[in-house]
Specification:
The complex is a heterodimer of chains A (113) and B (116). Chain A has no helices and eleven strands. Chain A has 113 residues and is mostly beta strands. In chain A, the strands form two sheets. In chain A, strands 2, 4, 5, 6, 9, 10 and 11 form a seven-stranded mixed sheet that branches. In chain B, strands 2, 4, 5, 9, 10 and 11 form a six-stranded mixed sheet that branches. Chain B has a five-stranded antiparallel sheet with strand order 1-3-8-7-6, with no helix packed on it. Classes of the chains: A mainly beta (113), B mainly beta (116).
Chain lengths: 113, 116
């Protein structure tokens, strides 16, 4: 079966632009998680959803970052007015139920120039 | 804030050697997971430990959860080049409930290179 997919895989944007990163979880998975990962480092939690409800957004760095999952399936992470420090790999994961094994997607590499 | 510190950060060894990676925290975790990540891929779960003192084996890999559930270790016997990758520990805080239940805290990772 299909795993977690993310798009785009690579995104280069100019400072000040808004970007939207998409995550398509494994079909039927209730929980969806967003992480940010620096090269050679562990993922840093950003936020997660159960169905369409955002449960914990304590990891979002500031109010330029937001996420939604309006129909409980696909999720979008939006970064407004991007800054160079936002450059990173953004990873999405999903699990069948909250707290169960998380399956990670391939990530979106964001570069802000 | 729960922090997980992994050591060493880098490990370069020859095929056939044994190694241990450590994951330590001042906080208590209800469960702890170990992941392996290959270049260009997302992390893949290896094991979950939930009971203090628990030991789990996965072929040449042995995982241990500390008695106080504040630390864990991963031991690899007779390492092979295929073991090369980024090893990550991740914990779920004790008492995390409600909306924080799904939150995982990752360590900074150990980059393992096994030379043939």
């Amino acid at each position: 079966g299909a795993g977690v997919s993310q798009s785009p895989r690579y995104k280069v944007t100019k400072r000040g632009q808004d970007v939207a990163l998409r995550c398509d979880p494994i079909s039927g998975h209730v929980s969806l998680y967003w992480y940010r990962q620096a090269l050679g480092q562990g993922p840093e939690f950003l936020t997660y959803f159960n169905y369409e409800a955002q449960q914990d957004k304590s990891g979002l760095p500031n109010d330029r970052f937001s996420a939604e999952r309006p129909e409980g399936s696909i999720s979008t992470l939006t970064i407004q007015r991007t800054e160079q420090r936002d450059s990173a790999m953004y990873r999405c994961a999903s699990s069948s139920l909250v707290g169960y094994e998380q399956y990670f997607g391939p990530g979106t590499r964001l570069t802000v120039t | 804030t729960q922090l997980l510190e992994q050591s060493p950060q880098f490990l370069s060894i020859q095929e056939g050697e044994n190694l241990t990676v450590y994951c330590n925290s001042s906080s208590v975790f209800s469960s702890l997971q170990w992941y392996r990540q290959e270049p260009g891929e997302g992390p893949v779960l290896l094991v979950t430990v939930v009971t203090g003192g628990e030991v789990k084996k996965l072929k040449r890999l042995t995982f241990q959860f500390g008695d106080a559930r504040k630390d864990s270790s991963l031991h690899i016997t007779a390492a092979q080049p295929g073991d090369t990758g980024l090893y990550l520990c991740a914990g779920k805080a004790r008492g995390a409930g409600g909306t924080s239940y799904g939150k995982l805290t990752f360590g900074q990772g150990t980059i393992l290179t096994v030379h043939p």
